[in-house]
What we know:
Blueprint: H1 8-15, H2 18-31, H3 35-46, E1 52-57, H4 63-71, E2 73-80, H5 83-95, E3 102-106, H6 109-112, E4 119-125, H7 134-144, E5 145-154, H8 158-173, H9 185-194, E6 197-204, E7 208-215
Parallel strand pairs: 1-2, 1-4, 2-3, 4-5
Antiparallel strand pairs: 5-7, 6-7
Helix pairs in contact: 2-5, 3-4, 7-9
Amino acid sequence: MSTCCSTYGGVADRQFDAAKASQELKQYRKKGPGPTTRLLRDGLGKARVVHGSLLDIGSGIGALTFGLLDDGSTEAVAVDASSAYLAVAAAEATRRGHAEDVRFVHGDFVELASQIPRAAVVTLDRVVCCYPLVEPLLTAALEKAERALALSYPRDLWYVRAVIGFDNMRRRTARSSFRAFVHSPALMERLIRGAGFRLSIRRRTWMWSVDTYVRE
């Protein structure tokens, strides 16, 4: 990525614009949450940790936030770098009767972390692949997680790298500064385990790994 983490929010705001947010909302209302969102929701349910507060980092249109509120979370903070996605999520929260349950925060979570409260459950659905440096992102997320941390990320396989590399090439041709990343799963697991969490459930699709960790 040609930009550093300090300018990530502006890059993401341009990448995830109103047209993308509207399209994703339409898909969500028609077919429900996507595969990684469903797997994260189900994994947290099986781990029996869905109660109390939620911090959803990179919350997008709110699909995972709403799913976990429906399943037992009592309140949520939803953080996203895209103002367009947050606007859609706020309207959808009202439509679903969750307007009083969610606080929406716009910006780069790493920069905002000191202002965000801790939560029983912290989630990052398809977020680490959008952030250039995984260590500060995960470290900040882990500091907020009291009971569980769940995340989805691209598998480190040749064909996944090829797909993401092709997408990045198209963005470069279109003069977009946004890039996607395949970060080291071993590094991420080391960071998470080092913070006192153990792997509870791991599910995989052809492209994504979906992990639920609970505090030891």
